Amino acid sequence: MWLLFLLVACSAAVLSCALLCRAAVAAARTSPGPAPRPAPGPHPNGGTAGRRGPGLTLYEMAYLSGGPHRLADVVLVLMAQQRRVLLADTGWATVVDPVGKDAVERAALTAMGPAGQRRIPAIRDALVGDDAVRELGDRLVTDGLAVPVAVRPGVGGAVRLVWGAALLVLLCTAASYWTAPPGADTGLLLAWCSLPLIVTLGTCAVARFELHPYSDWATTAGARQLPGTVRAPASPALPASLVTLALRGPAALTDPSLRAALHSSGA
Fold first, then answer.
1. Cα–Cα distance measured from residue 161 to residue 151, given in angstroms and rounded to the nearest whole number
2. How many CA atoms lie within 13 A of 169 on its CB side?
3. How far is CA 176 from its chain centroid?
4. Alpha-carbon span 104 to 85, nearest angstrom
5. Percentage of the chain modeled with pLDDT above 90
6. Sign of the torsion formed by the C-alpha atoms of 41, 87, 216 and 214
7. pLDDT digits (tens, 9 = 90+) for 180-190
8. Where do runs of H (alpha helix) occur along the chain?
9. Quick count: other Cβ atoms within 10 Å of Cβ 199?
């Protein structure tokens, strides 16, 4: 029986590490370096989402950090801060001003439906398939900043799989130890079981130094342009609260009412 647990541990370790290597290679191949980007400039209607930081707009930061759902949260909070959308702590969004300042805002308003009110999770799901969001994602993929759909999940998801495999190896090691036949050489058994653990932890260590910051959406080039990385300081042209939301998600919001609205909706 202990051999079966050892086989499971080895299989999980090899498979998860192979998936991480595949994700890393895919991210590297899609990161030849970003194409020249337009110089920073104001949003055509005076908003902040169109102002570029170090090569990225607020919407692009959100997409590269958390995908279309993070982008939906950012545009809803942006409009809520401008009193154009009301976000209730029950997870509902209500239109106050039905005029969008850009394509993504208009898509969010359309997603709220003709009644002008909808649950936030439904708005997130609607924006995933919207043309404006797809065009933004396609542009980032073309520029070598976003991971193509065909190779997702990216490095972040693959690293989580490797950590999960390491935990499974530990469980299998314990199971192997307790199911070993009487008189078995437990030292040799633990030595064999330590091999997949060394592989998984070693792979995670290499990924931490070579691939960090991890992302399921951004390529290596895209991740390096996000504020907070070595090459990309935060831009004063963008509100700090919105940049924080774009990079870290709803848990980073300091406004309790906005945080409750997004969290109560399943964020």
1. 15
2. 26
3. 36
4. 14
5. 22
6. positive
7. 777 767 777 78
8. 2-29, 58-81, 103-111, 120-128, 131-142, 155-179, 186-210, 220-225, 240-248, 256-264
9. 20
The string of pLDDT tens digits covering residues 211-241 is 665 567 887 778 888 876 534 444 556 778 8
Tokens of 13: 């370790």
Residue 22: Cβ within 10 Å count? 13
| Tokens, residue 195 | 């091999």
Structure tokens at 111: 């997603």
The Cα–Cα gap between 85 and 131 comes to 21
Contacts made by residues 225-232, CB under 8 angstroms, sequence distance 24+: 225/34, 225/54, 225/55, 225/56, 225/64, 225/145, 226/56, 226/61, 226/64, 226/65, 227/53, 227/54, 227/61, 231/54, 232/53, 232/54, 232/55, 232/56
CB 58 within 8 A of CB 246: yes
Three-state secondary structure of 45-96: CCCCCCCCCCCCCHHHHHHHHHHHHHHHHHHHHHHHHCCCEEECCCCEEEEC
- Amino acid identity of residue 56, one-letter, is L
pTM (global) more than 0.70: no
Q: Which two tokens stand for residue 87?
A: 């976000």
Say what angle helices 103-111 and 120-128 make with each other, to 10 degrees: 130
Residue 95, beta-bridge partner list: 85
Specify whether the CB–CB gap between 204 and 166 falls below 8 A: yes
CA distance 262 to 74: 10
In degrees rounded to 5, what are phi and psi of residue 109?
Answer: -65, -40
Q: Quick one: which of 220, 142, 155, 150 has its CA closest to 22?
A: 155
